[in-house]
Write a structure and sequence with these properties.
Order of helices and strands: HHHHHHHHHHHH
Structural class: mainly alpha
Strand content: under 5%
Number of strands: 0
Radius of gyration: 27 Å
Distance between the termini: 108 Å
Number of helices: 12
Oligomer: single chain
Largest sheet: none
Shape: globular
Length: 323
């Protein structure tokens, strides 16, 4: 009887082990199949090009926080320098009166300089990436020039605030930052219209694939990043349209068109809110994209990129103080 009981217990333990192994193997197979069925990053991004080296084993891709950190540093440094070099008196002293002239109307065409420098910076950054050893085979310079138009830029908001603030704009006279702010606003809004190309592609892709539905299936691996990218693109696209009144306020203010304090206050609040929201939308778009793309967006020389964007942005602001 004792031997029979031991034999029965052994069979039971063997059966448990066998069932456990069966369950483990089955779970692994089902998990692998589920992972294979999930949408991959390339399937969730609406364009086919990528910024990555031909051989990823020889290059360490920067983490998403490094890429976003570069944008943040550029935003902070450019905004701080904009307060200094967007000031008409400071620029006038530095250039011995060549720029920063009082009552200058040159902002009406100097926005072209700021606009051109922003696109030029994007082109230089694209060339730096393309000419880095191992890069440049999967994208064109024009792709990145347009794509980088969606970058978050903060300095124009800071200048706009300084220009509109009562303490810097007394007696309805232009502030020391007026010319720099007004040309920066016009250049920025036009850059945002260019950015609508990639923002619009993203929104169209997400809507046609049903990714704006509440229970859309992005896959368990990339769901959060995809939602952030698609949501940011939609927010950015919607608020760009509302930034048009910002240019209207700038033009009417500069041309001397009279407006009541209540009307001006309403437009300043409305355009300020929409402008900040568009900046937030671009951040969400990029934060989602770099997390979703992974090795599909693997840019080299982030510090050099940051220097180029900062230097040319500040040059455009200083030039915009007026001649």
């Amino acid at each position: 009887m004792a031997r029979t009981g031991q034999y029965t217990n052994r069979r039971r333990r063997f059966g448990v082990i066998r069932i456990s192994w069966f369950h483990a193997v089955t779970f692994c197979l089902l998990t692998s199949l589920a992972a294979a069925a999930q949408p991959q990053p390339a399937e969730l991004i609406p364009w086919s090009w990528a910024v990555k080296p031909a051989d990823t084993t020889d290059f360490h891709c920067p983490a998403p926080k490094s890429t976003l950190g570069t944008f943040a540093v550029v935003n902070v440094i450019t905004s701080v320098l904009a307060v200094l070099f967007g000031n008409r008196k400071v620029v006038s002293a530095l250039t011995r009166g060549l720029f920063g002239k009082e009552d200058s109307k040159a902002w009406r065409y100097l926005w072209l300089v700021s606009f051109g420098l922003q696109l030029g910076a994007n082109a230089i950054v694209a060339l730096v990436i393309q000419r880095t050893a191992g890069f440049g085979s999967t994208f064109a310079v024009g792709d990145l020039v347009l794509f980088y138009a969606t970058r978050p830029r903060l300095s124009w908001l800071i200048l706009g605030f300084l220009d509109a603030h009562p303490e810097t704009n007394r007696d309805n006279k232009p502030s020391l930052w007026s010319s720099a702010a007004r040309q920066a606003v016009i250049a920025e809004v036009i850059l945002q219209f260019i950015a609508m190309y990639y923002a619009g592609r993203t929104v169209h892709f997400a809507s046609t694939h049903g990714y704006y539905k509440l229970h859309a299936d992005y896959g368990f691996q990339h769901g959060g990043a995809a939602r952030m990218m698609y949501g940011g693109a939609l927010l950015y696209l919607l608020t760009i349209v509302f930034n048009i009144p910002y240019v209207f306020v700038v033009v009417t203010t500069l041309s001397g068109t009279p407006s009541s304090d209540r009307t001006r206050l309403f437009f300043e609040f409305f355009t300020g809110t929409s402008s900040f929201t568009s900046w937030l939308g671009s951040w969400l778009f990029w934060a989602g994209y770099v997390r979703l793309a992974g090795n599909l967006y693997c840019p080299p020389k982030l510090s050099i990129q940051g220097v180029i964007w900062t230097a040319l942005s500040v040059l455009g602001i200083a030039t915009g103080t007026g001649v």
